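Inverse folding, one chain.
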C-alpha cells in the first residue's frame, strides 16, 4: 500500500487528471476517507465522475494546495513554430474531458469559424 502522503516532486509529476485515490494521497487521507468525503460533498476539490471511476484535475488539486501551476511548470513556448514547406500537417490530439453544453457550443462555434476562414 502506498504511503498516505505525497512529496512536492510527486505532485509536480502528476498528469492532467488523477484518480480520486491519488488526489487523496496529496491531501494526506486514505482511500476510505476520500470516498466518505466525496459522498458527504466535502472533498476539498471538485471530483468528476468518469464512468465508474472518479477523477480530480491537476489544476483543481494545485489550486486547493496553493501551488501556482505556472511557476511550477516548465516554460511552454508562446507560439507553435510554423511548419516548413512540404512538411506534414500538424497532428492534433483529442482528449476525453467532461465538457458543459455551453462550453461545447462555444468550442463548436470556434471550430466552425476556423473552417470558414480563407
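Residues assigned per position:
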Amino acid at each position: 500500500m502506498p504511503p498516505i502522503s505525497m512529496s512536492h516532486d510527486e505532485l509536480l509529476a502528476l498528469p492532467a487528471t488523477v484518480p480520486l485515490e491519488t488526489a487523496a494521497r496529496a491531501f494526506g487521507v486514505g482511500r476510505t476517507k476520500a470516498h466518505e468525503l466525496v459522498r458527504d460533498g466535502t472533498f476539498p476539490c471538485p471530483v468528476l465522475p468518469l464512468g465508474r471511476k472518479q477523477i480530480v484535475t491537476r489544476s483543481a488539486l494545485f489550486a486547493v494546495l496553493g501551488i501556482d501551476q505556472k511557476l511550477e511548470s516548465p516554460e511552454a513556448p508562446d507560439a507553435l513554430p510554423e511548419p516548413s514547406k512540404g512538411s506534414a500537417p500538424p497532428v492534433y490530439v483529442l482528449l476525453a474531458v467532461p465538457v458543459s453544453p455551453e462550453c461545447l457550443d462555444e468550442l463548436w462555434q470556434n471550430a466552425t469559424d476556423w473552417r470558414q476562414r480563407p
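The CA atoms of residues 24 and 34 lie 6 Å apart. The longest strand covers residues 53-57.
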